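Worked example (supplementary).
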Amino acid sequence: MAGGGIREIKQRIKSVQSTSQITKAMKMMAAAKLRRSQERAEASRPYAEKMRDVVMSIAAGTGGSKHPMLQARPVKKTGYVIITSDRGFAGGYNGNLLRMLTKSIKERHTSKDQYTIIVLGGKGYNFLSKREHPIAESEVGLSDTPNYGDIKDIARKAVNLFAEGEIDELYLVYNKFISAISQEPTEVRLLPLASVEKAENAPTYDFEPSAEEVLADLLPKYAETLIFSALLDAKASEQGARMTAMGSATDNANEMIEKYTLIYNRARQAAITQEISEIVSGASALE
Amino acid sequence: MNTIAIEVVTPERLVYRGEARIVVARGVEGDLGILPNHIPLVTPLKIAPVVVKKANEGQEETIAVSGGVMEVRKEKITILAETAELPDTIDVDRALRAKERAERRLAESGQEDFDFKRAQLALQRAIMRLSVAQKGR
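After joint prediction of all chains, the assembly is encoded as:
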């Protein structure tokens, strides 16, 4: 390899180095954000749990309530709420999820009239709108630490689609957070609400104004809460996925740097050897 | 003296936890004063302040609650709210702006309109926040 090759390799090393700096910084940021997201998910749990307790004990107490949100009806149209990220660099985070959604859509539905999608996150929106899936609502550019107020409207719209009979069931598709290195694409049926079991040691409540009316007030809120919890979970998953992806990107970059450095050193040595032998042979020609 | 535990939680966090002599809240059917050993009860709340009177005479805490549901058990009250704020965390400027905006919308849009109802609720929230903030000063 001649002198020109050395410079190219050197440039290559530099560029990989700067890439690895970026991926390393992104990994550290993701780690910090992951901690924050996890804290938020943790902080939201008491509300969701309490809400479930109350809903369960009311629904059980009123003996198989006739509230439409608790009753399965023949499915003519299905709604999907999918939670994706706005930014990439998160490995298979969005890809796996969207693949799962398109797969279950393909399995369940034969035409585009049979389902509609509510999308959170720009990645999902771009993917689904490009493939001309019916999108009922969308919300992009959510913060990494979303507030309830940020998604209240879209969650309410999703629940209203069901309440008004536009859709007959509602699925929630998101990445469930298992651990920092493991996230699982999950699909759960949100509405109608799954069979309710009476929570243990729940007291028998009095209701004001009436059990049915309290339930009518609570159930949409409960469904919205579930969407919000899933969003917080998904955000934690996103950071976890990004952390892992950026971690392995950094590792790969370092490996590459090592490889190129070795090639660089070899080329440098070869060039020096060549130069010396040129000088020696030049000198011996003068004798 | 007998007290009852109270917790106010929003989807984001636990806002308030304490012991109360009596808790006064505005349910959809009217004002409720909850004393210890109250019968188990669930009721949605109106957009209104919740007043927690503490065990020490004269001490009380006012919490601005909207979109709330109150669950009462014998020994504990839990308020689940979409938003809940203590007086010192209320952004008065923001509430003032929200109030003006809501009033403007109410003046512009016709009644029965969807936006009209929204503006009405927004106005209620803003007014409640302002009154709670004022009381807390």
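Two points are worth noting when inspecting this output. The first strand of chain A starts at residue 78 and ends at 83. The interface with chain B takes residues 40, 43-44, 46-48, 50-51, 54, 58, 147-149, 152, 203-209, 214, 217-218, 221, 225, 228-229 of chain A (CB under 8 Å).
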